[in-house]
Design a protein that fits this description.
Prolyl-tRNA_editing_YbaK/EbsC; 5 helices; 3-stranded antiparallel sheet; Cys-tRNA(Pro)/Cys-tRNA(Cys) deacylase; alpha/beta; 5-stranded mixed sheet; 25% strand; YbaK protein; globular
């Protein structure tokens, strides 16, 4: 697997990570499916959701694969009155990433990142490497360092 923008950014920051490749099933891009393919529990494989706050604009939320994002909690944590998922057709133009391959690292623009507090229970997390079929394994502190993420409770 060739290096992605996210991996190159981590290299530039001197952050240790592992790049893990897996076979993509275009009919099942769920985090649970990815977790099974990389041999980790779904709670350790974090998906990145692109959200728009009414005051902040676009933000990214990283939550465990099996969890549901609580938009009210995210809005409160990000200083918004309300937040809503960005329509799928806007994800690629905003981030440079396609569905099933959105990474909080190395997007077209640096958006604020909110990481669910459950990340702290793991020695490492799995997040998208920025393409379907690739995951980055890295410590929660490394993800926070790379993205400037705010750690808070954002799942329901």
């Amino acid at each position: 697997m060739k290096k992605t923008n996210a991996a190159r950014l981590l290299d530039g920051l001197g952050i240790t990570y592992e790049l893990k490749e897996y076979d993509v099933d275009e009919n099942d891009l769920s985090a649970e499916s990815v977790a099974a393919k990389v041999g980790l529990p779904a709670e350790q494989v974090f998906k990145t959701l692109v959200v728009r706050g009414d005051k902040s604009g676009v933000i990214m939320a990283c939550i465990p694969g099996a969890a549901e994002l609580d938009l009210k909690k995210l809005a409160a944590a990000s200083g918004n009155k309300k937040a809503e998922m960005v329509p799928l057709k806007e994800v690629l133009p905003l981030t440079g990433y396609i569905r099933g391959g959105v990474s909080p690292i190395g997007a077209k623009k640096k958006y604020p990142v909110f990481l669910d507090e459950s990340a702290s229970q793991w020695s490492f997390l799995s997040i998208s490497a920025g393409l379907r079929g690739g995951q980055l394994l890295l410590a929660p502190a490394a993800l926070i360092q790379a993205t400037g993420a705010t750690v808070c409770p954002i799942t329901g």
